[in-house]
Amino acid sequence: MIRIKNIYYMLSYAFQSLNDKTYKKIETEDFENTAELFSEILVLGVSKQIKQGLVRDYIDITETSSSIHGKINITTSINEQSFIKKQLNCTYDEFSPNCYLNQIIKSTMQLLLKSNISPERKKKLKNLLMYFQDVDLIDLKSINWKIRFDRNNQTYRMLIGICYLAINGLLQTQNNGDTKLMEFLDDQRMSRLYEKFILNYYDKEHHYLNPSPSRIDWQIENGYDNLLPRMITDVTLQNENKILIIDAKFYKYNTSDNDTDLRR
User: Fold this and answer.
1) CA 145, 147, 153 angle in degrees (round to 5)?
2) Which of 23, 105, 157, 260 has the most C-beta neighbours closer than 10 Å?
3) Which residues are CB-neighbours of 135 under 8 A, at least 6 positions away?
4) If residue 71 lies in a helix (H) or strand (E), which one and from where to where?
5) Distance CA 89, CA 80 (A)
6) Which of 24-33, 69-78, 109-118, 189-198 has the lowest mean pLDDT?
7) Closest CA to 38 of 135, 114, 140, 109
8) Rounded-to-integer distance, Cα 22 and Cα 16, Å
9) Which residues contact 98 (CB under 8 A, 6 or more apart)?
10) What are the Cα distances from residue 91, in Å, to 39, 87, 97?
């Protein structure tokens, strides 16, 4: 319970949106696993987004019909012999909620429905999925997470971040048709989350220290450092002439026996 709660506090700094009053009740609630936590965050976040309106985008649609829309595909129409039925194959744009961001969210909620979460949260997720009836499911393993956010979809940044953590925190092993979840996120993703938490914590609570990931130049005589790897700190704090470099480390276990390797 304690560790799940710590994950939420790290998330609240990593994603400033979680400090909104919408999510305040999460601070007082206990969660059995990360799937429960991510499900509740998505329930609250997606509910809020639905009230504001799901983002829409222009989607290319190709269909054969008796009504002409957009560009007529002559070659396809001839191959299909659709003109016999007085139809033509056309491609046109439609302003639709069936865009990539909504597809990621719907697919994530569907995946969480197969996980070990309470019936109450499953019911909430199913109710939200009714608003995604026109949105397609996608292959979770092929998602391109390099998403560009702008002022039109900025409210999706945190939701997509939670989807990323939820999907990649799943241990997708099939056992009698069920999807099992890892109890916690793996060390690599927890380490990245921990780094982001530290940076945003100082940025919010001690911004006068100018927290940032800074580049450190190599001290070499000939100046040819193009073949050397870049040295970038996790967090650098600076106050007047004093500089503190923080190297964030995350371990699954904070204590260890003498015969236990902390790097596992």
Assistant:
1) 130
2) 105
3) 97, 98, 102, 103, 106
4) strand 71-72
5) 8
6) 189-198
7) 109
8) 12
9) 59, 134, 135, 136
10) 37, 13, 18
Its sign, for the CA torsion 121, 97, 169, 1, is negative
3-state secondary structure of 91: strand
How many CA atoms, within 13 angstroms, populate the side-chain half-sphere of residue 95? Answer: 2
Helices (H), 15-87: 34-52, 74-80
Cβ atoms within 10 Å of 230's Cβ, excluding its own: 9
Do 123 and 39 meet the contact criterion of CB atoms below 8 Å apart?
Answer: no
The vertex-140 CA angle with 139 and 142, nearest 5°, equals 70
Q: What is the pLDDT of residues 47-80, one digit of tens each?
A: 999 999 999 888 777 878 877 777 788 888 888 8
> What is the rounded CA–CA span in Å between residue 201 and residue 188?
20
Nearest to 180 by CA among 224, 114, 263: 114
Q: Using 50, 70 and 90 to split pLDDT, how confident is the model at 122? A: very high
Least confident range of 25-29, 135-139, 161-165, 250-254? 250-254
The token pair that represents 200 in the structure block: 């945003």
Give the model's pLDDT for residue 250.
Answer: 61
d(CA 175, CA 190): 26
